[in-house]
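Our consortium's second objective concerns turning raw sequence data into structural hypotheses that experimental partners can test. To show how far this objective has progressed, the report includes one record in full. It was chosen at random from the queue rather than selected for favorable results. The single chain below, 306 residues long, was entered without modification.
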Amino acid sequence: MKFTAVVLASILSGLVAADVSSVLSAIKTLQSAVETTDSDVKGFDKSQGINGALSIQSTEANIASALDSLTSAVNGLDGSSLSDSDVSSLTSAIQGVSSAVESLLSDLTSKASDLTAVGTQTIVQGDLSDLSGKTYALESAAYKVVPCGSVSAISSAFASINSGFDSAIKAYGGSASGSPPAAPQGCAASSAAAPASSAAAAATSAAPAAGSSAASAAAPAGTTSAAAAAESAAPAGSNAVETDVVTVTDCPATVTNCPARSTNAAVATAPATEEPSVAPVQTNGGNGIKAGIFGVAAAGVAALLM
């Protein structure tokens, strides 16, 4: 079993390598055809007449055939099986042939007046439109196999080629037919979504903490939440205390220094470890102090009123 697995892995690896090799070979074939035609275009002069122009046009068939073969080879690739080295080799090769194509298109644009003068305007325009469509097909195939990390470089190379086709076709009085395929948007979206998700998660996790802290700070002194916060915030080894604010609403007439008639709040402080109890405070013959507070706080108020 182990031997079989090793053999199978070796075969599969060889197939991937062969596929990449065939693509690289097809790219070289295309580049050679492009450079041959470009050399003829550069050397063309209108004095060569229609025959010289048709000689150049005949080489267009080699470029068209090479584009079809390359597109077929790219479609045969399994993108998930490509190694980083494979991707790097393919990207470099595509960028290399891109430069060759751009050079040819630039020279055709420069020679537009000469080629038009000998009567080949419509022929060149049709050839360029045909090659442009085949380039779109190759670009679409490439986007299906290259990983996200290489999309930018591939997209840039094809964008330059497509721009060259547009300029050349316009130079011969035509307009590009169809539109180039759009680069995969998922690559940019995924990378942008990751930080956003992280930020959202951070905000979510931070929200309860911020809310709890704010609630503790905003809670009126003397409430259970404030007391719990005070106890939890006390440094280790220190004596925590509990402070309660008492609102005095009424006093007997005999009490001259009544907190209810003062702008100062009555505050009672006691050790937080004492067990709280609720009890009204009574004064001699007077109305009860209506406060509903911890007993230890009430005792402090009663001492104040005595």
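The partners drew two points from this record. The two ends are 98 Å apart (CA to CA). Residues 221-226+238-305 form one domain. Both points have been shared with the crystallography group to help prioritize constructs.
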